[in-house]
Structures are given as C-alpha cells and as structure tokens.
Amino acid sequence: MVNQWKHIMLEQGNGWALLTLSRPKVLNALNQELLQELNEAITWVEQADDVRVLILTGAGDKAFVAGADIAELRQIDSALEAEKVALQGQALFNRIENLSKPVIMAVNGFALGGGCELSLCGDIILSSDNARFGLPEVNLGVIPGYGGTQRLARAIGKNMAKYLCMTGDFLTAAEAKELGLVQKLIPKEHLLDEAKQLAEKIAQKAPLALNLIKKAVHRGLDTDLQTGLGVEAAYFGLAFQTDDRLEGMDAFLQKRQPQFKGR
C-alpha cells in the first residue's frame, strides 16, 4: 500500500504493519488531523488480509506521544464541545483496543496524557528504557478525556491511578514494568526490532484464536468470574469450529509447523 497520510508513516513486514505517528516538532502531539488519519489507518489495518498484527510507535527517540495538542484544546470554549472531543477520541481508542488483530505498542519515550491513554489500548506494551508514562492533565486544570481514568485504573489499580492523575507525576519505564503496565523493557535502539520480531511471532499464530483471546479477556474483565468462565467456554467452542483448529492439532500430531489461514 502507498502511504496516504501526512502524519502517519506505514511500514509492512511478514504479517505485521507498523504505524508511526509523526509530528516530531511537537513530540507527536495528538491534534484532530492526526486523530482522523489514525482512524483511517485503523480501518485500513482492519481490512488488510495480509496484516495480522499492528505495531504503533512515535517518530523520533524522545516521545511516543507527548499528549494532546494543547494549542488546539485551548480553543475549546464550551463544556459540550469539550465532551464531544473526548467522546470522539474515546471512540477511536475503543476501536484500537477492540481491533480484531493484536496491537503492540512500542513506547519510545514520553507517553503522556493522550499518549499514555493510547498506549493503554494496546494488547502488549513494549517500552524503551528511557520512556515515561503519565497523565498530567491536572496541571492544566482538566482531567484525562480519552479513557485514562478508566483504563489506567483497570491496569494498575484504582488507588495508584488516582495517585498519578491527582499528582501529575510520571512513571519511569522500570516503575511501569513493576506495576504491570509494561510487559518488557528494551534498550531504545533495539525497541522497534524487538517489536517487529514479536509481531512476526504472533502473526504465525491462528488469527481467529488470537481474536477470541482478546474478546475473552476483555469481556471477562467486565463481569464476574463465573460469567467470565462461561464466556471462555463459549469461545473455546467457537475455536473448535475453525479450520485452523484442525490444522493446529494435525500439525502437532504430525510434528510439523502449522500453517494457519484464519478460517
């Protein structure tokens, strides 16, 4: 595919696509133009049969996304307009979180405000060792609007989430990993290479099973354990209806590598 976006760079590899958010002069701050392009890019990823895993990162080595575009937000002059902006951002981030394909966030520096909120939509968060995570909106007299109060609390617990939102303090990459927010710390010069290797590994798995895993975890977290177990059993049954289930089990019994087709 020919890259069609102004602020997003596209790279494709063996089963994966890498989207790089690129507004480096403002540390990749999220403005409405970039968010619209990201929405279009997510639609393309969802429809691309040759893309099984998505990687998201930011341009440069200073920031993943340093937050929203404050100059743009300063122009909002009513509560209704602000709420509309928040709902639009939340809708996009929900799309990313619920994408039918695994999403790897390669956080390569500051992930603040909207950048932290975006990273929380990933299935796996890989972080450079110089990254910083935070929701400092309180310093601007506002609160997170793209899902930060909700997803961060679910990721690290309500009290730590409130602490970070109320103080505006940042987490180091090591602290984020200790809290379980980040799955792996990587030297910044190797971050993208490792993200691509992980994406290629996951892309070799059964696509429908990967999607069912996402759905089972997401739905289970929104309910009690017994209901969640029922969801898991139902999805376990759905997996048994697929050709990939037969391929995976036959390959295991025949001692060969499976060739999953997503059917």
Question: What are the SSEs and their pairings?
Answer:
Elements: E1 8-12, E2 16-21, H1 32-47, E3 53-58, E4 63-65, H2 70-73, H3 79-97, E5 103-107, E6 110-112, H4 114-119, E7 124-128, E8 132-134, H5 148-156, H6 158-167, E9 170-172, H7 173-178, E10 184-186, H8 191-203, H9 207-221, H10 225-239, H11 243-253
Parallel strand pairs: 2-3, 3-5, 4-6, 5-7, 6-8, 7-10
Antiparallel strand pairs: 1-2, 8-9
Helix pairs in contact: 1-3, 5-6, 9-10
**What is the H/E order?**
EEHEEHHEEHEEHHEHEHHHH
Strand order, main sheet: write it out: 1-2-3-5-7-10
Overall tally of domains = 2
Rg, rounded, reads 19 Å
Given the C-alpha coordinates, what overall shape results? globular
Low-pLDDT windows of residues: none
Query: Could you say which structural class the secondary elements and strand pairing correspond to?
Result: alpha/beta
- Can you give the mean pLDDT? 95
Contiguous helical run count: 11
CATH topology of the largest domain: 2-enoyl-CoA Hydratase, Chain A, domain 1
Kindly report the name of the CATH homologous superfamily of the largest domain.
Answer: 2-enoyl-CoA Hydratase, Chain A, domain 1
CATH class of the largest domain: Alpha Beta
What's the helical proportion of residues? 40-55%
Number of strands: 10
**CA(first)-CA(last) distance:** 24 Å
Major sheet summary line: 6 strands, mixed
InterPro entries: ClpP/crotonase-like_dom_sf (IPR029045), Enoyl-CoA_hydra/iso (IPR001753), Enoyl-CoA_hydra_C (IPR014748)
Keywords: Lyase
Protein name: Enoyl-CoA hydratase
Pfam families: ECH_1
